[in-house]
Design brief:
This protein is α/β, with parallel strands linked by helices and about 375 residues long. The protein is built from twelve helices and 16 strands.
Length: about 375
């Protein structure tokens, strides 16, 4: 809605794969901002503000900047500063607030993207508020967005047969948000603080800095990968986490969770600390932080001829498919990017440890598609 074909859009590298798909559909050129990674946890921390300003300065012809806020792990950054800087250069700000539809329910949580100055905000309402899966909202603020053009674009990509069940669930979520949301959120945040206090002496480090509804449990001291912990919690304790990375698991707590839910998690952590702790920590594994060289834009690569080669023979070639650890759906390699040994080594090692990989056709990771032209 903000770009024409061949226009630029500035995007955080740890964006959702749907952003790249949109660039393919609309023939838009993505300009990436490198995202920060916590080496202790492999948690994605968001963008560096000064680096983002440099990217804007070097791409003043960009029509928009799209940022993920909060990150999938609940980390935030100085969004208002970036909004003000982008607006100063006549660049609109789109925020993927998929995991932040609840932020307005308490002053103990980070400010919402709209409060920070974003022009368009997309929320996956179903992730953190009580609506059905697939239900989401788009919010617009100010006069930088042509609302009629946006409505036209939505008609092109949405179904002409909308689900009234999903829409009704959104109305119910809004009603709960407005009438009971503040009370439920304060109760949840109090329960989370009690949970953290109760478990500070277990074998798990708890990370819970910005969005207090997100709990990252590091299993490093337990001597167990996050993938192993995810399986153990599900199969042994009937607890389903949002996602796992190499160092731990992420849990999303919502206003639908009760004190009993967190008590059950506490019992599981105590039991695992007593029964499963190993003598040594897991080995260190660094997340690839370098953005691969872009040889073709996503749309050009999408329509090129492709061929499948053995995965280690692909190094130095142009990738023709996605390589996406899932969840959360952040692409390590996208169509048009040059394949590096660092990324292949990381993906294969993590896959052996239990990480799921999406996008690539060969789920065994023996072959990968490259551009054959």
């Amino acid at each position: 809605a903000l770009c024409n074909p061949k226009d630029k859009i500035i995007v955080n590298r740890d964006c959702h794969q749907s952003v790249i798909n949109s660039c393919i559909l609309a023939d838009i050129e993505p300009i990436y901002i490198l995202s920060k990674i916590d080496k202790e946890t492999n948690i994605q921390e968001g963008i560096d503000i000064e680096e983002s300003k440099k990217i804007i300065d070097n791409n003043l012809d960009a029509k928009a900047i799209l940022l993920t806020y909060p990150t999938y792990y609940g980390k935030t950054f100085e969004l208002k500063e970036i909004c003000d800087y982008a607006h100063k250069h006549n660049i609109a700000v789109i925020v993927d607030e998929a995991h932040g539809a609840h932020l307005g329910l308490s002053d103990r949580l980070p400010k919402t993207a709209l409060e920070e100055g974003a022009d368009i905000v997309i929320q996956s309402t179903h992730k953190t508020l009580p609506s059905f899966t697939q239900s989401s909202m788009i919010h617009i603020k100010g006069d930088r967005v042509d609302r009629q053009r946006l409505s036209t674009m939505l008609r092109i990509i949405e179904s002409s047969s909308p689900s009234y069940i999903l829409m009704s669930s959104l109305e119910l979520a809004v009603d709960i948000y407005e009438t009971k949301g503040n009370e439920l959120m304060e109760e949840l945040l109090d329960n989370i603080e009690q949970f953290k206090e109760k478990n500070k002496n277990t074998s798990f480090d708890i990370y819970n800095e910005d969005d207090k509804t997100k709990l990252f449990l590091s299993s490093k001291k337990l001597g167990m990968t996050g993938y192993e912990l995810e399986d153990l919690l599900r199969e042994k304790y009937n607890i389903q986490v949002e996602l796992a990375n190499y160092y731990g698991v992420l849990l999303i707590c919502t206003i639908g969770n009760t004190k009993e839910d967190l008590d059950k998690l506490s019992e599981a952590l105590e039991d695992m600390s007593n029964r499963y702790k190993k003598d040594s920590y897991i080995e260190c594994l660094e997340y690839p932080v370098v953005i691969p060289e872009k040889a073709l834009n996503p749309r050009e690569a999408f329509y090129k001829n492709k061929k499948s080669v053995k995965i280690y023979e692909s190094i130095g070639q142009i990738c023709a498919e996605y390589v996406i650890p899932y969840p959360p759906g952040v692409s390590l390699l996208s169509p048009g990017e040059v394949i590096t040994k660092e990324i292949i080594d990381y993906v294969i090692l993590c896959h052996k440890k239990g990480m799921n990989i999406n996008g690539i056709k060969d789920l065994n990771l023996e072959f990968i598609e490259i551009i054959s032209d």
